[in-house]
Amino acid sequence: MKYINFEEASDTVSDEIYMKEALKEAHKALEQGEVPIGAVIVSNGRIIGRGHNLTERLNDVTAHAEMQAFTAAANYVGGKYLHDCTLYVTIEPCVMCAGAAYWTQITRIVFGARDEKRGFSNLGRANVLHPKTTLMSGVLEAECAELITSFFRNKRIK
Amino acid sequence: MKYINFEEASDTVSDEIYMKEALKEAHKALEQGEVPIGAVIVSNGRIIGRGHNLTERLNDVTAHAEMQAFTAAANYVGGKYLHDCTLYVTIEPCVMCAGAAYWTQITRIVFGARDEKRGFSNLGRANVLHPKTTLMSGVLEAECAELITSFFRNKRIK
């Protein structure tokens, strides 16, 4: 296996690498019967926070993947702002998570697939995210979407 | 002191009683140098969750009063939905907290003073709160507003 230096990798390549890490988190959620959404937060080529959805296990609607990743990353940096950080998340953040992202002033958000129903962008991006935050979508979109679509498909069959 | 049966008290009286409890939480935040916002969650006349802002102490933007109250209440009821519950919070919830309230399907939200800058209602109520949730504002408004205004006034003087 070829060693990849994250910082030298092109943006597209490194975005996919980190989204794969978010997908690993989503799979951890799936193994626990949770809606399979995962997230990582990256700063200077290093993953400083991870999270996967645990709302059922914890009986807590605030236990979204992104929220846990924000808390973990803030703990790592020893401060509440996530400047020079990127959030990678498999599914578009909901209003709660986008609202949390605002407070972190995170530099960049990259998500895989849209959440047509509860994605924050339904409210209009400008009013939710921090003006410093840039947004990118569609990284490993098909894989991120398929994971969640098949989860709900299987739930309906059972 | 006359004993007040919460369930028999008129709505206005009981709303003020619970908002005073939320104000007690806000004072706890103030004592720790935090932005003084407090919250309680009430179900059938009983306070089942409390929280005050701890974002500085925990270095965590997700540690808003409401978020902690949601988690505490969900823990109390043993489920993630807060049906037949009311959130009392001294200041209008931000987008993150309103987004969390959506997921809880909480029956009612009562807040004291508006947050003109970051209150969720800037985004339009209809799209943020759950259709089942009713909203009321202005309970002990002056007291709730004064607490936070004087906090920031003192911060500027120092």
Detailed description of the structure:
- The structure is a homodimer of 158-residue chains.
- With 158 residues, chain A is α/β, with parallel strands linked by helices.
- Chain A is built from 6 helices and 5 strands.
- Chain A has helices at 11-31, 55-58, 65-77, 95-104, 125-128, 141-157; strands spanning 38-43, 46-52, 85-91, 108-113, 134-137.
- Chain A has a 5-stranded mixed beta sheet with strand order 2-1-3-4-5.
- In chain A, helix 1 (11-31) runs parallel beside helix 6 (141-157).
- The radius of gyration of chain A is 15 Å and the shape is globular.
- In chain A, 47% of the residues are buried.
- Residues 1-8 of chain A have low confidence and may be disordered.
- At the A-B interface, helix 3 and helix 4 of A face helix 2 and helix 3 of B.
Short description:
The structure is a homodimer of 158-residue chains. By secondary structure, chain A is of the alpha/beta class. Chain A has helices at 11-31, 55-58, 65-77, 95-104, 125-128, 141-157, and strands spanning 38-43, 46-52, 85-91, 108-113, 134-137.
Write the layout of secondary structure elements.
The structure is a homodimer of 158-residue chains.
Chain A: H1 11-31, E1 38-43, E2 46-52, H2 55-58, H3 65-77, E3 85-91, H4 95-104, E4 108-113, H5 125-128, E5 134-137, H6 141-157
Parallel strand pairs in A: 3-4, 4-5
Antiparallel strand pairs in A: 1-2, 1-3
Keywords (chains A, B): Hydrolase, Metal-binding, tRNA processing, Zinc
Function (chains A, B): Catalyzes the deamination of adenosine to inosine at the wobble position 34 of tRNA(Arg2).
Family (chains A, B): Belongs to the cytidine and deoxycytidylate deaminase family.
